[in-house]
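tool_call: predict_structure(chain=1)
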Amino acid sequence: MRYIIRKSALVSFIFLTAFCLACSVSTAKKQTETNINRPLILPQKTSDKPKIIAFGDSLTAGFGLSETESYPYLLQKQLAADGFDYEVVNAGVSGDTSLGGLERADWVLGTDNAKVVILELGANDLLRGIPVAKMKDNLDKIIRKAKAKNVKVLLCGMLAPPTMGTQYQREYTMAFPDLASEHKVEFIPFLLDGVALNKDLNQADGIHPNADGEKIMTNNVYKVLKPMLQK
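tool_result:
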């Protein structure tokens, strides 16, 4: 079965164009992947509850927000309110790429009693113009590692803007639904659906959701995640 990206999500092309322009300034620092993909420090105290791992970049880490405003924290509250006894682990690292994620995948997926991983990586690959085949291969390997550990996968997709060129745009945009279809995993076509381009839902950079935007992003995740869980 081939996943179909909703037409409403196409507006994100414009958003991602702005995303690329904004990040071109920060890349002037020329940070290496080694520096960006610093080790993630997981919480020292974890319970024996089944774990949901939010595995991603700044969108997962909650860049520019307090811990209590980040989507993993809000997701934890929503789960508790609906009677799901899971612990959400925020494994987000700002600036992370699919390669950075792959390099720490064994450690992150080795979290005790991990049951679900919400995989949100690839936006920074786009910003760096990394070949789609490499990004797709990295994500493929992460998914395979998760499935080998019997961890369910919820894959979050992204879209490429026209400025990247027709071929790159097409290949990048379809990489995510193709992976979801190939591995038969759950899929969110666009994590920021309903948030992108809305200045009232984003921080001053126009890229990262603000506290209100995080609530919508959390709902985007939860509506797909919920059927995957057991009470």
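agent: The domain at 48-228 is CATH 3.40.50.1110 (Rossmann fold). Proceeding to next step.
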